[in-house]
């Protein structure tokens, strides 16, 4: 499988890695806000962005903004049926705005804009969208000395119930967009 990790940082998690900063595990040094990226159309089976998109500057209105440029560029370099996997803090996570380098926060609605949602259709501009979006929100809790980690380890059935009722603070968005 031909995979690309954008904003890979220090760890290699894909066939091809890209970051704005050079490093021992970075294959391609590139600023993803600058398009086009140095890859042809329909190249990758999967593109990954883990804790990256919340760092993109707000530098233009609507579809001229860097998040739109990145989303459109990822779609271009994915093969048909390829997937874009995103992990980012949910807006309820205190670190979403708590990290000084973060420039934007996301919630369940944000990425529907790139999958042709009803909400997105009311906007007045046009851009290529993904065919499908799947979303999962993970949660975090701590009750006294007992954390989610302990509940999962020692009381997995209770953990399942707590998951089902949505106990805890929304922590991370896990988004999968299919071209
Ligand atoms: C919070 S780190 C996440 C690193 C890695 N993905 C991980 O999960 O450990 C954010 C990464 O995005 C990179 N980054 C930020 N803005 C970028 C840009 N405009 N173009 C390319 N990489 C960028 C940073 O250099 C950094 O390595």
Task: Tell me what the structure shows.
The chain has 5 helices and 9 strands. The protein is α/β, with parallel strands linked by helices. The protein has one domain: Vaccinia Virus protein VP39 (Rossmann fold). β4, α1 (66-77) and β5 (78-89) form a beta-alpha-beta unit. α4 crosses α5 (156-165). It is globular. The model has no long low-confidence stretch (mean pLDDT 94). S-adenosylmethionine is lined by residues 7-9, 11, 19-21, 31-33, 50-52, 55.
Reconstruct the topology from this structure:
Layout: E1 3-6, E2 16-19, E3 28-29, E4 44-50, H1 66-77, E5 78-89, H2 94-98, H3 118-121, E6 132-140, E7 142-143, E8 146-147, H4 148-154, H5 156-165, E9 169-178
Parallel strand pairs: 1-2, 1-4, 2-3, 4-5
Antiparallel strand pairs: 5-9, 6-9, 7-8
Helix pairs in contact: 4-5
Bound molecules: S-adenosylmethionine.
S-adenosylmethionine is lined by residues 7-9, 11, 19-21, 31-33, 50-52, 55.
